[in-house]
Amino acid sequence: MKKRERIVRYSAPERINHWIVAFCFVFAALSGLGFFFPSFNWLMNVLGTPQLARILHPFVGVIMFAAFLIMFFRYWKHNLIDREDIIWAKNIHKIAQNEEVGDTGRYNFGQKCVFWAAIFSLLLLLASGIVIWRPWFAGAFPIPLIRLALMAHSFAAVGLIIVIMIHIYAALWVKGTITAMVEGWVTSAWAKKHHPRWYRAVAQQSRPKQQEKRP
Ligand code: HEM
Questions:
Q1: For the chain, what is the domain count?
Q2: What is the arithmetic mean of pLDDT over 134-140?
Q3: Where does the Cytochrome b561 bacterial/Ni-hydrogenase domain start and stop, copy by copy (predicted)?
């Protein structure tokens, strides 16, 4: 493919940031499921041994939160809900048939929902995680609060796992999306089809530069 047909979607630091979040998520989710369900106890070995998993799980969680916070401040403006999102949501049945609706910007309504669900559940996971973090912080909280935090932590974790499963499915299902996060680029055809408003904005930005280059 000709390089000029490619549009940069994520820089290398952005991709490294995203994959740190993704790796931390996989390790935290698998070890967490291992703690929670007896039939999944074997999953605690993803972090070495069950004992090591118990020590590392909260630290991995904190790294995931901190790395996601960088993504949050980088992308929150692109994830604000607008009028086009209502059109997208109302036509979700068409989206499921691989049609596109509305004048979508950098992210569509589905991606925006993943974004806000991720920050909400990560905040809940962090706050409840600190309350239940033995031996460092849990001693400072009363038992009823620790019980409540355990429940909140479990619900938030299951919620985030479901959301990220949808996110991964969408990233692989929409052809041409995964290169955005692996190599940093998408094709102009992909951008025109799935994110027409973003495509126009990028094209407009690069136009004066191209004109400058002309002899
Ligand atoms: C583990 C496997 C994962 C895969 C294969 C994956 C794949 C991708 C891809 C391909 C994109 C680019 C989509 C686009 O620009 O249109 C993306 C964006 C993004 N991903 Fe992931 N991801 C994974 C995990 C995660 C996790 C664990 C989180 C957060 C907890 C996350 C949060 C995001 C966010 C916030 C964006 C930018 C979209 C937005 O701001 O709405 N991803 N991901």
A1: 1
A2: 96
A3: 9-184
User: 112-149 as b/e, with b when 16 or more CB fall inside 10 Å?
Assistant: bbbbebbbebbebbbebbbbbbeeeeeeeeeeeebeeb
- Strands (E) across the chain are located at 6-8, 185-187
- Those residues whose C-beta lies under 8 Å from the C-beta of residue 203, and which sit 6 or more positions away, are none
CATH number for the domain that contains residue 31: 1.20.950.20
For residue 4, the model assigns a pLDDT of: 64
Lining ligand 1 with CB less than 6 A are 9, 18, 21-22, 25-26, 68, 71, 75, 79, 107, 111-112, 114-115, 118, 164, 167-168, 171, 177-178, 180-181
> Measured between alpha carbons, how far apart are the two ends of the chain, in Å?
26
